[in-house]
Input
Amino acid sequence: MHVRTVTGGLAATVAVTFSLMGGQASAAPSTASDSALAARVVTYDASGTAEFRSAVDRGAAIWNESVDAVELRPAAAGQRANIRVLADNGWPRAITTSLGNGTVYIGRQAVTEGHNTIRISSHELGHILGLPDRKPGPCSSLMSGSSAGTTCTNPYPNTAEKAEVEGNFGGALAPTAGAVPFPVTTVD
Output
C-alpha cells in the first residue's frame, strides 16, 4: 500500500501528552487533507475460494499496493464481509451490488483454459472497485481481462485504472466516467 501520513492523530497524541505534563493543550483542527488520507476499508471473505485463496489474497494486496483511497482487508471471524469471493466451475465473474460490495467468482473454466489466477482475482476485484471491462485491450490493462490472452499474466492496474479507483473512493460525489453502474453482473 502507498505510504499514508496521519497528521491529525499525531497532533491529538501530542496535545494529550502535553496536557498530561501540565501544559496547556489544544487539539489541532483536522484538515480536509487528513480525512482524504484515510482509506475506506472494504473487507472480503475468501473462505470459499478453495485452491484460489492465495491468488485472491495476492489480488487484494496488489490493489492495496496500487491505490490509497481504498484498502481491501480479509474479514475478521464473524464479521460480515463487503465482498464474498467463491470458486466455481464456471467463468470468472463479479456481481456488484454497490461500490465496494458484491460477490466475485473465481471460475475454474478460465484457469483450465490457461488464464492466470492472480490476474483473474485482481481483475474481478477491480469490478467491485467500480471498474468496467475494457475489451479488447492490451495486457497492460488489467481490465482487458481475458481479451489479452492466456500468455498475459499482468495482475496490476495501469495508471488510468488506478486513478479511476482513486476517484471512485477518494471522496468524489459523482462516479467517474465509465464507472460500473450498480447493481450489475460482469461475466468476463
Q: What stands out?
A: The CA atoms of residues 1 and 64 lie 5 Å apart. Residues 7-20 form the longest helix (14 residues).
